[in-house]
Specification:
CATH topology of chain B: Rossmann fold
Structural class of chain A: alpha/beta
Structural class of chain B: alpha/beta
Number of domains of chain B: 1
Order of helices and strands of chain B: HEHEHEHHEEEHEHEH
Strand order of the largest sheet of chain B: 2-1-3-4-8-7
CATH class of chain B: Alpha Beta
CATH superfamily of chain B: Thiamin diphosphate (ThDP)-binding fold, Pyr/PP domains
Oligomer: heterodimer
Largest sheet of chain B: 6 strands, parallel
Number of helices of chain A: 6
Helix content of chain B: 25-40%
Strand order of the largest sheet of chain A: 2-1-3-4-6-5
CATH superfamily of chain A: Thiamin diphosphate (ThDP)-binding fold, Pyr/PP domains
Number of domains of chain A: 1
Number of strands of chain B: 8
Chain lengths: 167, 191
């Protein structure tokens, strides 16, 4: 589950793709599946938060201050963030790109990741968060899709990162 | 000496907050703030308890020259205690954190919080806030508000209050979307 040399894309290229379409505020809590992305974001002002819902708060403030924010997290952090998403982002129309790693993917992971790995697609749908999994299209296409949904809906949108996609 | 109330704390703070982006915690703090003095640069939370300080920090990081005040409560700070070290480490210079500490969850019926046994001001000082004080009377409150609103922060002023016993504050008259739009416009963020 760590970064590997045979990943589909480079994390640095994903960071550049996000920046290239206009995302300009980065915060979150780490996951090994996006370690290379966090390295690339370190010199782009990435704010290392202590909890994912606090990062959602940061993103809300940053949006009102004119930014297009991104919150990066493990899918365990999606569980932590659900109340912020429901009672802050969704109702106040505070858009945000969620980059969520897919631990528990395919049922092959440590026990603590299996439930969230299994229910995450339904959970995102239930919270009315449009999402795509990375890895099937060029990174720039997914970044542009996320930026377009962000601007059009004024709600959270998610790019999900399965294992082996970013290294 | 009569104990201060949430309304007293809000009334004391508001005159010093011209030009500030003001993020108000959910519950009676937002309701009193809106009722005492409303400005387009005020953001009143109706949910996501605990996150007022995080929202304020997000504004401060995105616009470092913009003064930011957070009107917070003891229950809110306790729910998101990681916010104190996060703000201290981020070192926003114009960040005024006013914590109205009444020792109860007022909106849900005055159930006690643990704040009477936990000095939140000392936790903020240990975390690294630039200036911290605790007040319990109106004269000290006014003096510290004037001092903290003009000084480099991050600053945390804890105001000891008693739970409200008089008439309740009116509800927030704005929709959540209206509050986002006007704060975004006030901060120059609207395209």
């Amino acid at each position: 589950m760590s970064d590997s040399g045979d990943a589909t894309f480079k994390g640095a290229d994903f960071a550049s793709a996000l920046e290239g379409v206009g995302f300009d505020f980065f915060t979150g809590v780490p996951c090994s599946l996006i370690g290379s992305v966090l390295v690339a974001l370190a010199d782009r002002g990435y704010v290392a938060e202590t909890r994912e819902d606090a990062a959602m708060g940061l993103a809300a403030g940053a949006f009102m201050a004119g930014r297009r924010p991104v919150v990066l997290m493990q899918n365990s952090g999606l569980g932590v963030s659900l109340n912020a998403i429901g009672s802050l982002q969704q109702i106040y129309e505070l858009p945000c790109l969620l980059v969520i790693t897919w631990r528990g993917f395919g049922g092959k992971d440590a026990p603590e990741h299996l439930v969230m790995g299994r229910v995450m697609p339904n959970l995102l749908d239930a919270y009315e968060i449009e999402w795509r999994a990375l890895g099937k299209r060029p990174l720039e296409d997914d970044a542009r899709w996320a930026r377009d949904r962000f601007d059009a809906n004024q709600k959270p949108v998610a790019l999900v990162v399965p294992p082996g996609v970013l290294g | 000496m009569n104990a201060l109330t949430t309304k007293d704390a809000v009334e004391a703070a508001m005159p010093a907050l011209d030009g500030y982006a003001v993020v108000c915690a959910n519950g009676f703090i937002s309701r009193w703030a809106c009722s005492v003095r409303d400005r387009p640069s005020h953001f009143y939370m109706i949910g996501s308890m605990g996150l007022a300080s995080s929202i304020g920090l997000g504004i401060a990081i995105a616009q470092p020259d913009q003064p930011v005040a957070v009107l917070d409560g003891d229950g809110n700070v306790l729910m998101n205690l990681g916010t104190l070290p996060m703000i201290a480490v981020s070192k926003p210079k114009r960040f005024f954190h006013l914590v109205i500490d009444n020792g109860v969850y007022a909106s849900t019926g005055n159930q006690p919080t643990i704040s009477p046994e936990v000095p939140l001001d000392e936790i903020a000082a240990a975390a690294g806030y630039a200036r911290v004080a605790r007040v319990r009377d109106r004269a000290s409150l006014d003096a510290r508000v004037a001092e903290f609103a003009g000084a480099e922060g991050p600053s945390l002023l804890l105001v000891e209050t008693a739970p409200e016993s008089g008439p309740s504050a009116p509800r927030i008259p704005f929709t959540p979307q209206e509050m986002t739009a006007r704060m975004r416009a006030a901060l120059g963020g609207t395209a």
